[in-house]
Recover the amino acids of this structure.
């Protein structure tokens, strides 16, 4: 019978007879549970999460937010994404550390169970799961966070190796979760989370490698741009030299053209002189072939003879 009672009421087995310490991330839920337990046990409601377990041996009930819910709450309180993740991680680490100090004394409950499974919370604490008692827990429970924000928070937790590991440990450690308490399922979630964390770490390593390759390619791009700029400068110089050479060629072409015109003029003059010489030659030949030139031949001979005697 004692074993059945311990199984039915884990809180009593945790040492509730020596007193019960209750801490809740959502204060109204802690107050509601305190009110339900005060008829059976000496209950103290803790306003802040203790750093260590008291030495008096009281049972400790921790109504903690799941990591994703803690991130959502921190964001709703006005923290930035990085600060919200850090705050949620610190809270979950403290809760898990308290449970690790004495698993038998500490009952770790997911506070969303008060909203989804109040009968399981009451049974864990050894209280009758009446409709009124369940309603009181549900009314005191924190409102459900926005579904989109919760999904984004869960995705961000999975992307962080340390936080993903904490989320898996929390899921494996809670006595009562959002639904039925199933240690095997919680362990599976923890292992899946660890595998996803390892995969994320591998992806991050690949991402760093890709960033390194991109930086190397960017440096190579800068070098190629510098080389291209140098080639452009050389091309500009060659183009300027080409333009100068073309200018000199045009000047020489103009000089050659002028010389060609002069040569053509000289050729015309030579042709005219040759034509005149040919005319003169024809006239001389005509003169030599004339009758008067032949008749005067003796006189010319006598004249030359007379000149010779002188």
């Amino acid at each position: 019978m004692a074993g059945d009672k311990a199984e039915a009421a884990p809180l009593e087995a945790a040492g509730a007879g020596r007193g019960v310490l209750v801490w809740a991330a959502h204060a109204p839920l802690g107050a509601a549970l305190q009110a339900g337990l005060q008829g059976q046990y000496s209950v103290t409601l803790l306003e802040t999460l203790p750093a260590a377990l008291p030495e008096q041996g009281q049972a400790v009930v921790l109504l903690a937010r799941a990591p994703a819910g803690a991130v959502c709450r921190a964001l709703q309180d006005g923290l930035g994404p990085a600060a919200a993740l850090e705050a949620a991680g610190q809270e979950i680490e403290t809760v898990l550390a308290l449970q690790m100090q004495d698993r038998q004394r500490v009952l770790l409950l997911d506070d969303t169970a008060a909203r989804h499974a109040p009968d399981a919370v009451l049974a864990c604490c050894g209280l009758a799961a009446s409709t009124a008692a369940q309603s009181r827990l549900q009314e005191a429970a924190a409102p459900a966070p926005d579904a989109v924000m919760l999904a984004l928070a869960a995705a961000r937790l999975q992307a962080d190796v340390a936080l993903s590991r904490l989320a898996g440990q929390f899921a494996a450690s809670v006595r009562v979760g959002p639904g039925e308490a199933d240690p095997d399922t919680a362990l599976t979630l923890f292992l899946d989370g660890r595998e996803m964390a390892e995969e994320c770490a591998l992806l991050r390593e690949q991402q760093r490698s890709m960033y390194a390759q991109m930086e190397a390619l960017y440096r190579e791009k800068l070098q190629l741009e510098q080389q291209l700029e140098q080639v452009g400068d050389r091309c500009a110089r060659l183009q300027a030299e080409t333009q100068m050479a073309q200018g000199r060629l045009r000047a020489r072409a103009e000089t050659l053209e002028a010389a060609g015109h002069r040569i053509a003029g000289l050729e015309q003059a030579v042709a005219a002189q040759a034509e005149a010489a040919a005319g003169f030659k024809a006239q001389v030949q005509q003169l030599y072939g004339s009758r008067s030139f032949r008749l005067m031949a003796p006189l010319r001979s006598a004249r030359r003879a007379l000149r010779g005697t002188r």
About this structure: The chain has a mean pLDDT of 84. Residues 2-181 form one domain. The beta strands are 20-24, 43-46, 59-64, 106-110. The chain has 13 helices and four strands.
